[in-house]
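[Automated response] Your request has been received and processed.

Submitted sequence:
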Amino acid sequence: MISYAPLWETMKEKNVSQYKLLTSGIDNKTLDSLKKNRNITVLTMEKLCRIIGCSPNDIVRFENADF
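Generated structure:
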């Protein structure tokens, strides 16, 4: 399962608000998907990384993966 818990932690550490994401090109539907741990596109992940100034590892983690 995908978890975006690291995203919220990283945003808090870097003082990036949800409003900042909204004004930087991330829409409400995408924010809702992130809150509900739903899939996002790689392009969206790239946008988030650029806005926040982080890497994908700072945004997402895989939990309970059966690898």
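Summary generated for your ticket: The beta strands are 2-3, 61-62. The chain has four helices and two strands.
If you did not submit this request, please reply to this message.
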